């Protein structure tokens, strides 16, 4: 952990310890809870390089809540989403969560976006005792036994290992890594390097790209000079779009691969022909194939809100909301944060219709290990 990041986290924890009234008094058991509604908080990028993720979360979570509310809500209370923009800036995420805590506007947290952002807020969540379901990050560094955090998606470590194993199985040797120049990208680089070592290989190239893409031309030039057979894109958001386009143009024939967060759904459409053949890991089933009941339920919930287009991101948000709702159901008619934590921890083999969540009653709480591999078509959908 970098010194600056460590000092920031330590300062946040110290501030909470020194002023417990800031959190504990404001964040009483009735925070975000009324006789008629339960308010769920979320800080996510609705602007900036990861805005597509925020859009997907809003669509999927509100679709799930709309379906639940139409059936009477949770023990007579409706679910409401209180979503605020942080632009993928960790300090803004911290400020947003602090405000929710101080004002008592959220009963629980759902799917805040980003590894550095979640790194910043987890000390707050743990100190406050706020239940937090499904952070939108697969970073293994954030899965270290937090008692209030309930992950749903599989880890980036598992995604990267699955991807490297497939590439190695195809006989590919020269695998390069382009990673985002932040905590997420560096952790992904470590995961990929370890996975390659297990296959007896080293990265053919490793280069960092700025989150705003300011050094994109230099990155593309370095990849072109190295001429790897495949490139793992440990990137996320809009920079991935320009990166894929640049590599397709300047390194023709190279196999481009990435993980579940490399490209949000809006970016897949932007790529068009440039996205054709891009191989990605998926931590959710294909949202456009109604083979599983969970996908059919998701599609019906989206259509009920006038949404006719489906995406992995909004399906993930839908599933995450269903998991939180299950915990709230089990917490009973007189819910508290403590009862919700206990209820979530007690989830075993919850089948949402072909997608299973199991927390096994022990930390770190990780509900799913589902990983699939898909190849994109020029239409931005996964090929059959």
UniProtKB/TrEMBL annotation:
Keywords: Amino-acid transport, Signal, Transport. It comes from the Bacteria. The keyword Signal applies. One of its GO terms (biological process) is amino acid transport. Transmembrane segments: none annotated. SUPFAM superfamilies: Periplasmic binding protein-like I (SSF53822). PROSITE patterns: TAT (PS51318). Residues 1-28 form the signal peptide. Residues 38-355 form the Leucine-binding protein domain. InterPro entries: Leu-bd, Leu_Ile_Val-bd, Peripla_BP_I, TAT_signal. Belongs to the leucine-binding protein family. This is ABC transporter substrate-binding protein. The lineage of its organism: Bacteria, Pseudomonadati, Pseudomonadota, Betaproteobacteria, Burkholderiales.
């Amino acid at each position: 952990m970098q010194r600056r990041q460590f000092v920031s986290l330590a300062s946040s924890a110290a501030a909470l310890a020194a002023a417990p009234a800031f959190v504990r008094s404001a964040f009483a058991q009735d925070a975000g809870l009324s006789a008629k509604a339960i308010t769920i908080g979320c800080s996510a990028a609705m602007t900036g390089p990861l805005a597509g993720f925020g859009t997907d979360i809003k669509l999927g979570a509100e679709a799930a809540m709309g379906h639940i509310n139409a059936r009477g809500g949770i023990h007579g209370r409706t679910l409401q989403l209180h979503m605020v923009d942080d632009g993928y800036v960790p300090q803004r995420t911290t400020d947003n969560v602090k405000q929710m805590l101080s004002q008592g506007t959220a009963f629980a947290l759902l799917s805040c976006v980003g590894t550095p952002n979640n790194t910043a807020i987890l000390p707050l969540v743990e100190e406050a005792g706020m239940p937090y379901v499904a952070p939108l990050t697969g970073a293994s560094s954030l899965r270290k036994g937090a008692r209030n955090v309930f992950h749903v998606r599989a880890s980036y470590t598992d995604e990267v290992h699955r991807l490297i194993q497939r590439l190695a199985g195809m006989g590919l040797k020269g695998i390069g890594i382009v990673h985002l120049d932040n905590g997420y990208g560096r952790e992904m680089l470590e995961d990929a390097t370890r996975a390659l070592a297990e296959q007896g290989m080293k990265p053919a190239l490793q280069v960092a790209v700025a989150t705003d893409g300011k050094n994109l031309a230099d990155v593309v030039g370095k990849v072109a000079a190295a001429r790897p057979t495949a490139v793992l894109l440990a990137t996320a958001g809009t920079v991935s779009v320009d990166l894929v386009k640049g590599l397709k143009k300047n390194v023709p024939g190279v196999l481009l691969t990435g993980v579940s967060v490399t490209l949000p759904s809006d970016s897949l459409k932007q790529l068009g022909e440039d996205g054709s053949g891009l191989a990605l890991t998926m931590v959710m089933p294909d949202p456009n194939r109604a083979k599983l009941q969970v996908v059919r339920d998701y599609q019906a919930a989206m259509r009920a809100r006038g949404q006719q287009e489906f995406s992995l991101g909004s399906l993930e948000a839908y599933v995450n909301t269903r998991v939180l709702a299950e915990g709230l159901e089990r917490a009973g008619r007189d819910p508290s944060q403590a009862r919700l934590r206990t209820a979530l921890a007690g989830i075993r083999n919850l089948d949402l219709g072909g997608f299973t969540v199991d927390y096994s009653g022990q930390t770190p709480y990780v509900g799913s290990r589902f990983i699939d591999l898909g190849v994109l078509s020029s239409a931005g959908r996964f090929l059959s």
